[in-house]
Specification:
With 341 residues, this protein is α/β, with parallel strands linked by helices. The chain is 46% helix and 16% strand. Strand 6, helix 6 and strand 7 form a beta-alpha-beta unit. The two termini are 33 Å apart.
Length: 341
């Protein structure tokens, strides 16, 4: 889509937001295709899953997407966002590496009239954002910890695998986990450290903990499923069985819950959440009204409901994707962006 003189959007939170949300509302005389840049923190399992939802929604809505992944490097992401600005995209969908980053790039986007929409991860200063699509990571962290606390009957010794320190989802999930554990005086945290959202890093960290606390660890709480699965591999190698909970609901974790290898997880369906982010970015770029914030609430996944979750995420994925564009529009209308029915 060629950029033309912007019109004023109905998003009137502030003068800055007014300029941002209306900047890309006009269609070109000869091409109505939107070009939306997507800058994500890394190609994690969650983001890879979300890529499928984004591509499906884009194909159904005449949107060209330009993907950038930063491999959890703040400087790389800053460069990538600047590249998207220089490419004159109609909007940028941003999953930031760190909450305290990218302010110069956001200022440049505002100067160039390109709206930015945050998805999946927050920024400390969101004053220039046109909108945001975010999980409630505090609630998810508390829910994951409570799942373990309930399993242990309120008493036991646990370890906590954090994500890469400094990202909003690490900060918020840590806050939620601490709140739940602090309310359970019979639960002791033996160790807490960053597994960096990585299976490999969490394998090594869990190995260290198993050696440091032999026969003491009664539960492992991981801030995402990749780390939970890394912990699972390390416990298997050590020949021990320890209950493990995670967050995200990726395929391997759902299968582990189904076969009893993991106690549970919290469903953050990347296809749904990232497609919702793209839909909001498209609405902003086309000059439509959007909410300031859309919140994704993660349902818990245990042995009792995992089969139904696996159907949408794994076994019936293709049919789910066929109906995804219509589902996203329905969810934005209702405000329940985690809905899958």
């Amino acid at each position: 889509m060629k950029r033309t003189r912007p019109i004023v959007s109905a998003i009137a939170i502030s003068a800055t937001l007014l300029a941002l949300s209306g900047c890309a509302a006009s269609a070109a005389e000869d091409d109505d295709t939107l070009r939306i840049g997507i800058a994500v923190y890394a190609n994690s399992s969650f983001i890879t899953q979300g890529h499928e939802g984004v591509d499906t929604y884009a194909a159904a809505n005449d949107i060209e997407v330009l993907w950038q992944a930063a491999d959890f490097d703040v400087n790389t992401q800053a460069t990538q966002v600047e590249q998207l600005i220089n490419q004159q995209v109609d909007a940028i969908l941003l999953a930031p590496v760190q909450a305290d980053s990218l302010q110069p790039q956001l200022a440049l986007a505002a100067e160039k009239g390109i709206p930015v929409i945050a998805v999946n991860a927050q920024l400390d200063d969101d004053s220039t954002l046109a909108s945001s699509v975010q999980p409630d990571d505090v609630a998810a962290g508390a829910q994951a910890a409570q799942m373990m606390i309930d399993h242990l009957g309120g008493e036991g010794k646990v370890v906590v695998l954090q994500g890469a320190l400094g990202s909003s989802f690490e900060i918020n999930r840590t806050q939620g986990m601490h709140a739940a554990i602090d309310a359970a005086p019979g639960v002791e945290v033996l160790a807490e450290d960053a597994g960096n959202w990585s299976r490999d890093d969490s394998i090594n960290l869990t190995r260290t903990w198993l050696n440091s606390f032999p026969d003491q660890i009664q539960g492992i709480i991981a801030q995402n499923d990749d780390m939970a699965l890394g912990a699972l591999q390390a416990t298997r190698e050590a020949g021990v069985e320890i209950p493990i909970v995670g967050i995200d609901g990726i395929e391997d974790a759902l299968n582990a819950v189904a076969d009893g290898s993991m106690l549970g997880t919290q469903l953050q369906h990347g296809r749904v959440e990232l497609a919702a982010g793209l839909a909001v970015a498209a609405k902003v770029a086309r000059g439509e009204n959007v909410e300031r914030l859309y919140t994704y609430l993660m349902p818990p996944v245990t042995a009792e409901n995992v089969d139904a979750v696996i159907a949408n995420v794994v076994t019936e994925k293709d049919s789910f994707l066929e109906g995804l564009p219509a589902l996203i529009e329905k969810n934005l209308e209702s405000g329940d962006i985690a809905n899958e029915k």
